[in-house]
């Protein structure tokens, strides 16, 4: 079976109808979101959620983000504190996920939350949100890639990785943000960053007029989102903060800055020739895949600034460069 690909731009109504039909049958559907493509299923149905884990090869102890149509819908499933409400009002729809206490009587299936008493909720932009509205139920959706691999930012990426395992891929073009959502948890008035992502931490700090705590502190293991070491891993190994390129490496630059030894590189890419971190985030996963595809054994990446979206970019690069499970 190969997935059919439907454009949400040119065949909008049909894409909505087909999407709702497959989701109602309990099947997972690949959908565009502003961050990365998601592998979506009805979050209230155990067999549908199971198919997400199976399709990705993802361990079932790693909970999924539940996507909602709006704050009102989210309030049916989770208990909001005042700071989380403020964040939701400022950044939804958009690339922000809030981890909140789950309402015990709600019908999100425990497989979606991995049995936790919290739930990660996000309201996505655009077509994904219309689809949730049309279905009338929350969509559990991790990134639409095989577990541990680079996240997809185009329908083509999804088709190459999971096309044989899916029946429908909805194509919304290139994902504009390009990295996953920022994950925040508010507890006792403290605001903790669980994963840097598409909303810069500085924006959250400015809105709430308080610092966001980084690092996992005394949190349970499950709060290490995106997991610990290797994740977002291309086939080639990854070398960070490269000041020069070595022979045969694929080189990824930033900001148009020349890198010594470029002439010996197998290929040279630039995340953003103008040095724009939002553009670099949007290009990150696609360029990692391209660099990987050019056959080099190693990908060298020049230093990327750590502010704004640079924090999310560096987080994903560090995971891509981390030792692989089979190597350690
Ligand atoms: O932008 C995104 O967030 C994308 C798009 C598709 O929406 N989704 C995404 O999902 O990145 P995924 O499954 O690849 O990452 C979700 C992360 C996981 O690392 C998981 O550990 C964390 O969210 N998470 C989900 N629910 C949680 C919870 N209740 N407590 C702590 N972490 C949670
Ligand atoms: Mg993922």
UniProtKB/TrEMBL annotation:
Root EC class: transferase
Entry's localization field: Cytoplasm
InterPro entries cross-referenced by the UniProt entry: DHBP_synth_RibB-like_a/b_dom, Sua5-like_dom, Sua5/YwlC_C, Sua5_C, T(6)A37_SUA5, TC-AMP_synthase_SUA5
Keyword tRNA processing found: yes
EC number annotated for this UniProt entry: 2.7.7.87
Superkingdom of this protein's organism: Bacteria
Reaction(s) this enzyme catalyzes, per UniProt: L-threonine + hydrogencarbonate + ATP = L-threonylcarbamoyladenylate + diphosphate + H2O
Protein name: Threonylcarbamoyl-AMP synthase
Source organism (scientific name): Rhizobium helianthi
């Amino acid at each position: 079976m190969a997935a059919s690909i439907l454009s949400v731009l040119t065949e909008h109504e049909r894409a909505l109808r087909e999407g709702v039909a497959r989701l109602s049958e309990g099947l997972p559907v690949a959908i565009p979101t502003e961050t990365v493509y998601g592998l979506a299923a009805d979050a209230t149905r155990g067999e549908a959620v199971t198919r997400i884990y199976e399709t990705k090869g993802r361990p079932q102890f790693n909970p999924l983000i539940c996507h909602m149509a709006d704050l009102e819908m989210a309030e049916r499933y989770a208990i909001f504190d005042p700071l989380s409400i403020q964040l939701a009002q400022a950044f939804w729809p958009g690339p922000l996920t809030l981890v909140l206490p789950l309402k015990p009587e709600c019908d999100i299936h425990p497989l979606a939350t991995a049995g936790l008493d919290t739930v990660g909720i996000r309201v996505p932009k655009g077509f994904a949100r219309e689809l949730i509205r049309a279905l009338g139920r929350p969509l559990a959706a991790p990134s639409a890639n095989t577990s541990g691999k680079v996240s997809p930012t185009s329908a083509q990426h999804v088709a190459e990785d999971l096309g044989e395992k899916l029946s429908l891929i909805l194509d919304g073009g290139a994902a504009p943000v390009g990295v996953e959502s920022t994950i925040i948890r508010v507890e006792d008035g403290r605001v903790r960053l669980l994963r840097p992502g598409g909303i810069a931490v500085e924006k959250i700090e400015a809105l709430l007029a308080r610092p966001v705590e980084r690092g996992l502190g005394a949190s349970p293991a499950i709060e290490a989102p995106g997991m610990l070491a290797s994740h977002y891993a291309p086939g080639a190994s990854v070398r960070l903060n490269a000041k020069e390129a070595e022979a045969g490496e694929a080189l990824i630059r930033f900001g148009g800055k020349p890198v010594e030894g470029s002439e010996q590189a197998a290929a040279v890419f630039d995340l953003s020739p103008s040095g724009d971190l939002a553009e670099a985030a949007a290009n990150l996963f696609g360029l990692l895949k391209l660099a990987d595809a050019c056959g080099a054994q190693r990908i060298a990446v020049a230093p990327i600034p750590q502010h704004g979206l640079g924090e999310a970019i560096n987080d994903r690069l560090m995971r891509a460069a981390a030792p692989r499970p089979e190597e350690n």
